[in-house]
Amino acid sequence: MARCKSVVILTGAGISAESGIRTFRAADGLWEDHTIEDVATPEGFLRNPDLVHRFYNARRQQLGEVQPNAAHYALAEFEQKFTGEYLLVTQNVDDLHERAGSQKLIHMHGELLKARCKRCGSVSAWCGSMDGASRCPLCSAVGSLRPHIVWFHEMPLELDRIYNALSRCDLFISIGTSGNVYPAAGFFQEASAAGARTVELNLEPGQHASIFDHFENGPATSLVPAYLK
Ligand code: BJW
To answer: What sequence ranges are listed for the domain Deacetylase sirtuin-type (predicted)?
Structure first.
C-alpha cells in the first residue's frame, strides 16, 4: 500500500449491510420483495410512478435510522492519510460514505436523498414532502421530479472520471459487491489492463473473485479496517 501512487476503490451494497441496509441479491435482499422491472427501470416509473415513489420513500426513511460503520470510517481515514491519487466509486445510493467523512467520492448509481427534474435536468435535495406531483425548485415544472437514481438501461454517472482514474491506478479494491451489474462489474478489468493489482474484499466471492489478483472473505467491518491499516 505504501508504494501505491493511485488507488481506486469500488463499493457495493455489502459495505452498508452491517449498518442495517439490505443488499439487493441476498436471500433476504431487496429484490426478493420487489420486481426490478417495476421499481428500478424507467419503464416501471412511467407505468406506476406512485409505486416507485413509495419504494424510494421507504428507503429514505430507513436511511435516517442507520449509521456509518467501521468500514465506511476506515475508507474516510484512508483518504485523509493517503498522499497519492484516490477515488472512491460507490454503487450505493445511501449517504453513509459522506457521513463517515469521505470526500473524493462518486455515486455512480445516484443518490437517494436527491431529486432530478425530467424537464430541466437539475438535481436538488429531496424534501420529505416531495412526490410525483411536486414542483421542480428550479424550473417550477409540476410533476417532473423523479428519484436521482440510475435505473437499469440508464447511463451511470461520471463514467469519464471513473474510467480516467481506472486507467491511471495501480491498486483497485472492490468491496461488498456481487459483480452482477455492469459497467461497474467490469471496472477491475479496466484497472488490470492498466497494470493495477486487483483486490476483492467480500463476505462471499463475487462473480469474478477467482480472477482478482487477491481475494479476502469476511464482513466489511473487519476486512476493510484491517486491509487499509
Ligand atoms: C457483504 C456483506 C458484509 C453482504 N461485508 N460484503 C454488459 C453485460 C451484461 C449486461 C449489461 C452490460 N452492460 C449493461 C448491461 C445492462 C445492465 C446490467 O448490468 N444488467 C445485469 C443485471 C446483467 N446495466 C445497466 O443497465 C446499467 N446501465 C448501463 O449499462 O448503461 C449503458 C452502458 C453500457 C456500457 C458502458 C456504460 C454504460 C445501469 C445499472 C443500474 C443499476 N441500478 C441498481 C439500482 C439502483 C437503484 C436502487 O438502489 O434502487 O443499482 S441495481 C442494484 O445493483 C443497485 C446496485 O448498485 C447494483 C449492484 O449491486 P451490489 O451492490 O453488487 O449488491 P448485491 O446485492 O448484488 O451484492 C451484495 C454483495 O455484498 C454480495 O457480494 C455479498 O457477498 C456482499 N456482502 N454482506 C461485506 N457484511
So the answer is: 1-229
